[in-house]
Amino acid sequence: MAGAAFLAEPVWGGEYALFSGGGRLRVDRHEAAGSTITLYLGAGTIELAAAEIRGFEPDERVAPPPIVAAPPSAPEPAPFPEQLADAAANKYGLPADLVRSVMKAESSLHSNVVSPKGAIGLMQLMPGTAQALGVDPHDPAQNVEAGTRYLRALLEKYGGALRHALAAYNAGPGAVGKYGGVPPFAETVEYIRRVERQWKRGE
Known about the structure:
Layout (H helix, E strand, L loop, with lengths): L14 E5 L4 E4 L1 E5 L2 E6 L2 E6 L3 E6 L22 H12 L3 H12 L19 H7 L6 H18 L4 H10 L1 H7 L6 H17 L1
Antiparallel strand pairs: 1-2, 1-6, 3-4, 4-5
Helix pairs in contact: 1-2, 1-4, 2-7, 4-5, 5-6, 5-7
């Protein structure tokens, strides 16, 4: 082929230079300028007359696929509130359905809820209660663990009397002590009914 048949732009990628007299040579690339062809081989070059080259063929060897780093493993999904309740109930020897029922009555299973009075999370811990129990109330697992621990302590305090313990959980032990039992607060009375209703459904 005549030199004018070669492109003036550099050609990139591995290829074979085909010599007019026969044979071929693998090169990285070539450049054609006028009647001269420059072959690039690694760090060196060869300049030949265009008439000495009859053409080029691409190197059809398949390059190995690039090494791609494996994506980081996805974080473990956060446990569902019910799973947290079951684990805490098992830890403190309470019926799982009871802990779930308290949680539903307190927060409707919303871990980020904060009441107008400042109670936080799934088990609606007051900041002072959370501090006394040494937990972060904004952490769902700690919130449920501490709320269940507190409920267990209240049940022990009132000799297993569930309504007294629930009243104290809702209105505070001081109110239960003041009234000698469930205080006559509409909110507390309805809260106890809600927990008991939910618990009976779960049994």
